[in-house]
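Q: Here's a chain of 141 amino acids. Please give me its 3D structure as tokens.
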Amino acid sequence: MYSLASKQILITNLNDAKKYKTAVIRDDVTHHFLLSKGFIENENLYVMDNYDSLLKLLETPNRNIDLVVLNDDLIYNRVKSTEAASKYKNVYNMQELTLNFHFACSLNTEKNIVKDLKETMKELEKKAPLPPLEKNGVLPW
């Protein structure tokens, strides 16, 4: 969960977040996850149709959105400059929402393609993750 860096938002557990207005992507796993945890659409949960809208909505004062739910990869890919990134801070990590992805191939997929996919995935898993956030949650660029 990200807020504007200028906001004094402290969240220690998911229930703390319910007192804020949070925006998510429609039918995304985070949308359904927050609904299952007691968030209520149009009360403390607002649904958008694309990722670019989330950050814009957060920055629009009259919309009163306090938080957006994005993973660090999406933030890193949407915000390209140090100046732009300094506007946001991570205020809560939803650890229970960590996903583990898998590949599925047809039984007719050529063996060399399956082998290449497996090897490539192993290489990607070995690579260092994105740089960690600073202690105060502000993105490091």
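Q: Can you summarize the key feature?
A: The helical segments are 14-17, 29-36, 51-59, 72-78, 82-85, 111-126.
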